[in-house]
Amino acid sequence: MFKKFSQEDVSAQNQVKASVQRKIRQSIAEEYPGLEPVLDDLIPKKSPLIVVKCQNHLNLVVVNNVPLFFNIRDDPNVMKKFQVDRGAIKFVLSGANIMCPGLTSPGGVLDEEVLEDTPVAIMAEGKQHALAIGYTKMSAKDIKNVNKGIGVDNMHYLNDGLWKPWLSKLGRTVRYQLLWDILSEE
User: Fold this and answer.
1) Ranges for the PUA domain (predicted)?
2) Which of 133-137, 165-169, 182-186 has the highest mean pLDDT?
3) pLDDT over 90 percentage in the chain
4) Checking CA distances to 50, which of 59, 60, 143, 175 falls within 20 to 30 Å?
5) Residue at 68 is within a domain
């Protein structure tokens, strides 16, 4: 989804009025209660909040020219999670699709209830944060039973085309800290 993300994928950008901004902030606070203490830093009340509408029913929430959140099909529900083993991390971060053996080997974890074409967050063995988001190509049961081929299409991963234009605005220290937090051992 974001591997080759560019300005051509953007269909509209709108600065939202204060009432809509409050609703977005409230929705984010409800969805991610751990962000509430830093929400004023992430989305300052006086800063303009822009909703960027993109192809495939994707919306980005942008503050100070930095995309902070996105949702697909107006549904910000928490995704089911799959976990890949340590050996798959470098491939996932290069944009590769998630192969079945990386999900079924020791270190991999599947949510057995996930069906085909379901969005999932891709976690990594020993890591706290998701490193990618994708859509399942087969059900979790099929991934486990077949154990061959692509299990999840990698749609967005750390440092892909969505990240790159805005990473420079974060500053070197913040970039390295963010990537370190995601990739380092707990």
Assistant:
1) 80-159
2) 133-137
3) 25
4) 175
5) yes
Give the containing element (helix H, strand E) for 172.
helix 172-183
**Residue type at 107 in one-letter notation:** G
Beta carbons within 8 Å of 169's beta carbon, 6+ residues apart: 64, 65, 66
**107 and 126 assigned to the same domain:** yes
**Assigned token pair, 11:** 């269909």
Cα separation, 35 vs 157, in Å, equals 21
Mind listing the pLDDT tens digit for each residue in 10-37? Answer: 777 788 888 888 888 888 787 777 777 8
Q: Which two tokens stand for residue 124?
A: 């990594």
Domain count within the chain: 2
Phi, psi of 4 (to 5 degrees): -120, 35
Q: With 0.70 as the threshold, say if the pTM is over it.
A: no
**Locus of tokens 């969505």:** 162
